[in-house]
Amino acid sequence: MKIGVVVHGPNIIDSGYALKLIDLISEYGDVSARLGGTMGRTAVIDSSLEDVIDISKKLVPSDSLKIFHDDGADIIFLLNYGKSFTTGQVFGYKVYNHYKNKINENNIPIIQIERPGEEDGSIINWAVKSDLAEEFANKLNLNIVTPEEIYETHIKDDEKSRQRRTIHGVSPGENIMVNGVVIGKSTSDKLVLVSKDNRIVDIVGGRIKEHGIEKLGSIDLKTAIVKTGLLRKAKVTPRVLDSDVSKDFKIAFLDHAGEDVYQFRDSSLVITIGDDTTLIASDILYRFNIPIIGITDGDLDKVVEDGFKSKNSIIFEVESGNDDIIGGEIHKVIFNNKKELINPNEFKSISDLENQIIEIINNRNIKYKINKI
């Protein structure tokens, strides 16, 4: 039997269950596993599982499902460890429906294994029914939950309106991230995002972060990727890989936490704009021993437990509300509005870039502090 396994998020990997489940599933046939999500890639690296779980491409889970579908898999497993049983089941519903809209023939069983090891863990058999759902439920001591139950309990009311979206499994005080941008903080365990003309205008059960809403811009609330709390909960020892850094002096510009940081893994240095972008990017790039120059303004929303930074990194903290302004100037003056520069004549080292950034900040007459790693 040809089996595809889609692994989503860091929690299923950090818990050790991803590898346990892949080994178990391998008893039933030939298994290929691939990942969905950026933080999951970091967890795969830290756990030395690159030869087990394919992380070569940045894919959302529904695209990973589609690849296995198109490759002729006999059955596909979706492995996830949601923050709660509700978030995990709603996640599965959305992934399955995105996948269903991308294929022509919905003829392959998809079995989601959700929160294995937890009392509220579950098995969900999406699409074509398979006897393996019940078999795995018995082996793992998990409940079987039907797609119909999930729809009636969590989805039905939301589908009445595209302008309101209920976010499940939230606790007070958690960051709310939409498409990689922090747009607010929860104040309740009942959270509803409200949009008008494709822009979020209110958070019921939370406080809006206006700067985040501006940065997010126009979205489709129904399909947007929403996360709350820490992107990765586990305390980990990061694994630093042999460097892929180009022999050229290659510098990159990153101003959005939701972008694929891994595309810059051969850079000599990455300039990051914004507190959250700097935190996420520096933590990932640490695995490749790539320093960053971060432009922040102290408005940090903690989205990962620890934010590691490579040696020779520099953090500029400018006056509140000015990180995007300075970022825009850097993008224009240093990068000529490009994303990458290779062997630029005027910049031969990190010090050259540091001095140019200081000049840009001083020209704006903005106060700043520098922290060197």
- What's the CATH architecture name of the largest domain? 3-Layer(aba) Sandwich
* Shape designation: globular
Radius of gyration: 22 Å
Q: Helix share of residues?
A: 25-40%
Would you tell me which CATH topology of the largest domain applies? Rossmann fold
Number of domains: 3
User: Biggest sheet, in brief?
Assistant: 7 strands, mixed
Distance between the termini: 51 Å
Number of helices: 11
Mean pLDDT: 90
Estimated share of beta-strand residues: 25-35%
CATH class of the largest domain: Alpha Beta
Strand order, biggest sheet? Answer: 3-2-1-4-5-6-7
Assembly state of the chains shown: single chain
How would you classify the helix and strand content by structural class? alpha/beta
Low confidence ranges: none
What is the number of beta strands? Answer: 20
What does this protein structure show overall?
The chain has 373 residues and is an alpha/beta fold. The chain folds into three domains: 2-153, Rossmann fold (3-Layer(aba) Sandwich), CATH 3.40.50; 161-227, no CATH class; 250-372, no CATH class. It contains eleven helices and 20 strands. The strands form four sheets. It has a seven-stranded mixed beta sheet, sandwiched between helices. A six-stranded mixed beta sheet has the order 19-15-16-17-18-20, with helices on both faces. A hairpin with a 2-residue loop joins strand 11 (191-196) and strand 12. The radius of gyration is 22 Å and the shape is globular.
